[in-house]
Amino acid sequence: MSETGGRRRGGLLDDLAGVAGGAFSALAGVRGEVEAAARAQVDAMVQRLDLVKREDLDAAMELARRAREAAETLEARVAALEARLAGMASPPAAAGAPAPVVPPAASAPPPAPAPAAASPAAAVPAEERTEASPSGLGEPPRPD
């Protein structure tokens, strides 16, 4: 092999490598363009189908979960309040018999006569007095 033949063969391989590299770079560019066009077509199809993004779906699902939990909590509170109200209600009258009507004057005791206002304790009605203070004026009880 002569030195010129070796160079020619090496130069030919270099040329082929350069052409192949150029072809690969051109194919890579075409590949990028095809991917971009396909992505644009898929985006247009999604817009026409009125689909939602995954993030929006997840947010809506979380909102629905919280609303469901709040509704369950409120249902439990209503049930507890209804049970409490049922316990406070008077027993129902016999079927068909009307409940007796009690006039307000008959159900309330007669008012007590007002004592003479000799002391500050007498000025405060008995209903408003506290156990800590017999006079109801906020003073400590006096040892008598």
From TrEMBL:
Comp. bias regions, Low complexity: 89-99, 115-125
Region feature Disordered, mapped onto this chain: 89-144
InterPro entries xref list: UbiK (IPR007475)
Pro residues bias (residue ranges): 100-114
Keyword Transport on entry: no
Keyword Protein transport tagged: no
Listed name of the protein: Pyrroline-5-carboxylate reductase
Organism: Roseicella frigidaeris
